[in-house]
Amino acid sequence: MNTLLDIQNLSVAFDTDDGPLHAAEDVSFSIGHGEVVGLVGESGCGKSVTALSLLRLIPIPPGRILSGKVLFEGRDLLHLPTPELQTIRGRRISVIFQEPQAALSPLHTVGAQLIETLQLHLVLDHQAAKNIALDWLKKTGIPDPEERMRAYPYQLSGGMLQRVMIAMALMLEPSLIIADEPTTALDVTIQAQILDLLLEMKSRDTSLLIITHDLGVVWEMCDRILVMYAAKIVEEGPRDKIFTTPAHPYTQALLESAISLTSRSERLSSIEGQVPSPLSYPAGCRFADRCKFIFPRCRQELPPLYDVAPDHHSACFLCDPQRGRN
Amino acid sequence: MPPLLQINDLKTWFPIKRGVFSHTIGHIHAVDGVSLTIESGETVGLVGESGCGKTTLGRTVMGLEPKKSGTIHLAGTPLWPARHKDSMPLRRRIQMVFQDPYSSLNPRMTILEIVTEGLIQQKLIRARDRAEAAKRLLHEVGMEPSGLHRYPHEFSGGQRQRISIARAIAVRPELVICDEAVSALDVSVRAQVLNLLKDLRASHNLAYLFISHDLGVIRHIADRVVVMYLGVVVETGPASDVLDHPAHPYSRALIAAVPVPLGEKRKQNILRGDIPSSASPPCGCRFHTRCPYAIEACKAAPPPLKPLTPTSARLVACIRKNEI
User: What pLDDT does A118 receive?
Assistant: First the structure.
């Protein structure tokens, strides 16, 4: 599978009154054509910041992209002049934002916003754009789409707005869709329709980066999974390996604490303790305080990503091939 | 002995007002004839899509919304008396934990004030014993007493939800209504809070009315499940039976739509379209507009909630329940 997007050593910080807050550190991964990659982790681990930084969508300042490259078809998006970047945003790489209420303009009808997006990127007259927009609204399963086109965002429920956002992101048929918690606000029945729609996009060779904390969604959608913890990627690998033989203790704990319809256990296992503050990360492994396998080296050094297999990496000293030899 | 909570044919309608004179032009039938009992120490899970009336049902039981008709009894006493004085002793026995741990705690009150306000109002402790009581409560929900004089914004979502729980159990209630109490929390924190709720249920002999759209959470905590659709109950029964072998076509569709890690692929084309408007619910069976098994007779009359088999604890509101 050839690479569509290649992210190398991306680091992002936000300036705060208490000093720089490192939201993403040394993040590297790639997405192939038609590949679905899942980015999972708890709130505040940096998964949304990572995804939004790819298109320079974080507020700068206070945000700062400290280093790294985001190569899309050979061009570095982090250093592309803004007008050129605008031809990629929405058209080639689109984003489904987490909060549709905040992402849509309250002063324009849903239809006007969909049509504007289409006319901005394609040469289309009003009627043609309207037909495309209507068609996509129908595909997202919104009841009575003609009526909804004339509605303002405040007149629609959260679930409907989310589907408007999804229609907006899909209708230009981009090469890559970044979906930030696309179905978190939706009921399972609507979620099922949206997941089917996204899978249909995948079958047309569209790549997807899905940010979520719902492991059921990840299992169903993704080919490959990235696990983030405290601003770093701690594990990366194919879906089946991550779910059946997770290598990093954090991934193991996360999977154990997941509640699913099929689990029978009386008591849920949970991860004790809390995520360290992003203003002062410890020198060693950031999961050390909550890890049940901790040994002295974990406190001293930050573990790099070790190869568990050629396609499976884990940032844990337990996976160090040199371990025990010296 | 009467059950802890008995709800009979409860209706909660909201008026739809239009025009300069705010004429009432119709009603949202949020809860439209629900009957339900909760025994002492029992956990009942209430599930359904957004807009099905599950939150309104919880709020009506709490007295936060006025009911249109029907009865609610707490251990034989009707809820809610008109006079404030009469309702106070009842309020002690029934408490609530809300969904949003950010907006459900007063930002201007310290944790000490938040968790002991009920105790003072109910005159269960004297003001000078406040700190002692608050420390004990924080300990019960697994928090450090050092947080007593801090404000809600200094805590994470999971900790705030623990504070909400401490506030709810402070007055030793018999029933706690949890409205999506863990939905806003991360996976690992959600597990911690669910375990806490289970521990408290055992140590305080609490009954829960647990409202959630997350069927995994319900399977984990509930003894019995009630499935609601458009303001009415379509199926009820022991949690494992309903979730493993749902009988009503709506329960089936709802459960089939949940993606499960390591599970089979979801079935395609499970349920299309949205929940119809509760201002004018469909005639007959309310689910007939989306039901794959609907026949002409389904449109004629609302199906009664009947046992699945003559001896079964499962009640299903579907006229074709035994043929599909």
Answer: 93
Nearest Cα neighbor of B38 from B226, B199, B212, B218 is B226
pLDDT digits (tens, 9 = 90+) for A49-99: 899 999 988 888 888 898 899 999 888 999 889 999 998 998 899 999 888
Q: What's A275's DSSP letter? A: P
Looking at residues B169-173, what average pLDDT do you find? 92
Confidence (pTM): 0.83
User: Measured between CB atoms, which of B191, B243, B259 is closest to A259?
Assistant: B191
Percent of chain B with pLDDT over 70: 97
Sketch the domain layout of chain A as residue ranges.
3-92+174-319
pLDDT given for residue A261 in this prediction: 65
Of A42, A254, A268, which is closest to B195 when you measure between CB atoms?
Answer: A268
Q: What are phi and psi of A230, to 5 degrees?
A: 45, 55
3-state DSSP call for residue A36? Answer: strand
Shortest Cα distance from B156 to chain A (angstroms)? 10
State the alpha helices, DSSP H only, in chain B: 54-62, 84-93, 111-121, 130-140, 157-169, 187-204, 215-221, 239-244, 249-256
CA distance B300 to chain A (A): 25
Distance CA A191, CA A218 (A): 13
- The residue in chain B having the minimum alpha-carbon distance to the alpha carbon of residue A158 is B50
Lowest mean pLDDT among A181-190, B9-18, B118-127: A181-190
Q: Which among B189, B216, B274 has the least Cβ separation from residue A260?
A: B216
Are the beta carbons of A263 and B216 separated by less than 8 Å?
yes
Chain B residues whose CB is inside 8 A of the A268 CB are 191, 194-195, 220
Cβ contact, residue pair A189, B261, below 8 Å: no
Best residue in B190, B258, B278 for a mutation probing chain A (most A CBs within 10 Å): B258
pLDDT digits (tens, 9 = 90+) for A268-315: 777 777 788 888 888 889 998 888 888 888 888 889 999 988 999 999
- Domain A3-92+174-319, second-level architecture: 3-Layer(aba) Sandwich (3.40)
